[in-house]
């Protein structure tokens, strides 16, 4: 254990540090040595808590997915929120994560664990690959429900098929980090979300 921490706190500190390093450097670029150096502990301590790198990465990924899906459900199912409100909340949610890894907004660094680990999917175990696939399924279901609700509220233009709009939102959300990396900043992602909203919303 690390000084002043019980086992639960130590495990969480290891996972928090692993998340930061995995997002920045990927599976290939993150080792127990890197994590132990960042934490000021020993590799043996990390082995004690997680056994091996794959177990640690699977647990970090599982926690990250659960937190992400919970956050997105809160955004897209908020009572009394319009489609416009939800899109703006989605932009704010994404910007907060982007800014954590790109504090000046111009570095063009990766900021999504899911996006980063997809690049290293060949190194993940079966559980890790299954979780990445499951995330896409959950994301699609989330947007399908959100856009169906928007349609029931009369917010979609008459020619818009809710399932098609949901697919487009899911694709943007699932590729948010690559979009910002390709453009070197957050602005293109923000514009993409707002442009899609303007294309599909019912206007007087």
UniProtKB/TrEMBL annotation:
Which parts of this chain does the entry mark as a DNA-binding region?
31-50
Keywords of the record: DNA-binding, Transcription, Transcription regulation
Q: Does the keyword Calcium apply?
A: no
Domain (HTH tetR-type) spans 8-68
> Could you give a GO molecular-function term held by this entry?
DNA binding
Transferase found in the keyword field: no
For this protein, the record's PANTHER family field holds:
HTH-TYPE TRANSCRIPTIONAL REGULATOR YJDC, TRANSCRIPTIONAL REGULATORY PROTEIN
Q: What is this protein called?
A: HTH tetR-type domain-containing protein
